[in-house]
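Extended Data, record Replication initiation protein RepB
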Amino acid sequence: MDEIPREQLTGALRRGAVKKHVAAIHVSGKLTLLQRKLSNVLLLNAYDTLISRPRHQIDARTLCLMIGYNSNDMETLKQSLRGLAETVAEWDMLDERGQQEWGVSSLLSYAKLKGGICEYAYSPALAEKLHDPKVFALINLNIQRRFTSGHALALYENCYRFVRTGSTGWWPLDLFRRLMGVEGSAYYETFKHLNAKIIKPAVAEVNKTSNILVTPEIRKQGRAVTEIRFRIAENPQLAILDLDDGEGVRHGAVYARLRALGVSDRLARQWLTAHGEEQVLEKLDYVESRKNVKSKLGYLTAALEGNFGPTSEETEELAPNPRAERLRRILDAVKARTPTQRDADKRLFLAQLADEGLRVDFDKHGWMSPLNNARIAAFWAEMSPGLFSGLDEAPTS
C-alpha cells in the first residue's frame, strides 16, 4: 500500500496540526477542497523555516498522501498548485504598536514540480504573517482529511479559531459569502439558496466530521437576512481528534517508543487512546521485527488502521500476512478508480450497512474500517472478481 516515507516526515510535518494565520483563512479566491487541504499541508511543511528560507520543498508523492489524494495524476496536483498561486490572501490587522496594517499577497509566490519534488515559496510579507504565533488557529490535519466538501472545510477553518470564545461573532453576509468562496454569484445573493446549498450542508458535515459542533444564527433587517454567526461547542463524540495535552500518557514506555519511531505527540496520544497500550505495543513489536520495510512509520499506520499483525502461519520473516495483502489489494483497487467511481463505491457500500455503528466506523476509517473488514473484502471480491486470487485465509470480521 502507499506509505509516506519516514525521511520526508521530519520537523513540522510530524506535528499533525498546522497553525494557520487568519490571513491564510480569509482568502478571496474560490479554493476547491483539494486546494484547501494542499494549502494547509504546504504551510505545515514550511512552518519551521518560513522566515529563514525563501524556498521550501516536499516530496510530491508524500504531499499527495498527506492530503488524502492517492493518485499519481500530477496534472491534478499542478492544477491545484496553479490555483493557489492565483488566489489572493488579504489581511487587515493591528500590529504590535497598535497601527492598522492592510496587505494582500498571492497564497504562493511560485511552485514547481521537478524530479518528484514540489518546490514552492511564499512572499516575504505573507510568510511573516503566517509565522506570527499570536494570531494562529490550529488546523488538525487528521480532521481535514475527513472532509469531502470545500465549503465545509472552509466553515470549519473559520469557526475553529473561535472555539474558546464559543461564537464567531456576527459576520455580514457579504463577508460570509467571501469566506465560503461564493462571492460574486447572483444565485447565492438570495439567502434561501445560500442556506440550502452552502450553510446547511456545511454545518452538517462539520458536526459529523470534526471535533466541534456549530449552530448558525441569523440577524435580519426587516425581512432580509443581513448577518450570520455560528455558536461553537466541542464535539464530545469526536474529542479523540483533538486531545488535551494530558501528561499521563506521555510517561509510558509505549508512548516513548512511538515518539522514537517518529510518531508525532498528538498522533501517539490518539493511537494510545483509540487502541490501548496493549494493542499498540503488539503492532509496534510486529512492525519493528519486519525487514525490508522502507517506512516503519507508514507500516505501523497501516497495521493499526488495517488491524493486521503477526499470524501463526508466519514462519519466515518476510512471509506475507494475508490480511495485510488483502488490504493492500483493496487499496490498490480503490486507487485505480476515478474520483467519481470512488465516491459511488463508498455510497454503494454504505447503503449495505444497516447498523449505525458500522456506518460510523466506515465514515471514520474508510476502506480500512476494522469493524467492516469481512464486509469490505466481500464487497471488493464482488466488484473485482479474482482480486484476492492466491490468498488462502478467509476474511473474518
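Summary. The longest helix spans residues 191-209.
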